[in-house]
Amino acid sequence: MLKYRWYWRIEPEVHFHCDLQFDPFLFMEDNNKVYGWTITMYEFEKTIPTLWGHVRDFMALHPEFIADDNALGFMSHDGGNKYNLCHFWSNFEIADMHFWRGPAYTAFFEYLDSKGGFYYERWGDAPVHSIGAALFANKSQLHFFDEIGYEHNPYTHCPQKVDTWQKGKCSCDMGKSFDYDGYSCMKHWDNFIRG
């Protein structure tokens, strides 16, 4: 795997509802992106009861790894004291493996691994990847792929702009998109990006 830089996680029985008009890997590389996603939602708090405390400890131990223009404001509404449970749903992610292999994320993962939460709780790749991307990348390096209509039952992301939907010849129902469902974190992302 070391010879590869980019990956796109695709799971069985997913559906893509729009024609892709561009190469997402080239887009990521040309625009200095390290992490791309289509759906964001809340994590189940009972599965990660101690995760955020360890994240805070790591941030205190390694402030040198925290990106200057990070996306902590998407993950926490109080400057990092409490985790709002938002994460990027990792069953669709396009990412730069140089970022995951870099010193910040490697140290972060090894630190979390030493705490046992992957085994004794249920720390999954979605919150861990999301927190790592939010802390160690600049927010401009994270990308919402709005134009990629994606369904992983029971959730669907469908482009919400009519021109994007038409250009992609999308087959999804815009009215059934998960983007602004009560369990979605998209409104938090929008507010965070708008500042």
From TrEMBL:
<protein>
    <recommendedName>
        <fullName>Glycosyltransferase family 15 protein</fullName>
    </recommendedName>
</protein>
<dbReference type="InterPro" id="IPR002685">
    <property type="entry name" value="Glyco_trans_15"/>
</dbReference>
<dbReference type="GO" id="GO:0000032">
    <property type="term" value="P:cell wall mannoprotein biosynthetic process"/>
</dbReference>
<dbReference type="InterPro" id="IPR029044">
    <property type="entry name" value="Nucleotide-diphossugar_trans"/>
</dbReference>
<dbReference type="GO" id="GO:0000026">
    <property type="term" value="F:alpha-1,2-mannosyltransferase activity"/>
</dbReference>
<dbReference type="GO" id="GO:0006487">
    <property type="term" value="P:protein N-linked glycosylation"/>
</dbReference>
<dbReference type="GO" id="GO:0016020">
    <property type="term" value="C:membrane"/>
</dbReference>
<dbReference type="Pfam" id="PF01793">
    <property type="entry name" value="Glyco_transf_15"/>
</dbReference>
<comment type="similarity">
    <text>Belongs to the glycosyltransferase 15 family.</text>
</comment>
<dbReference type="GO" id="GO:0005794">
    <property type="term" value="C:Golgi apparatus"/>
</dbReference>
<keyword id="KW-0808">Transferase</keyword>
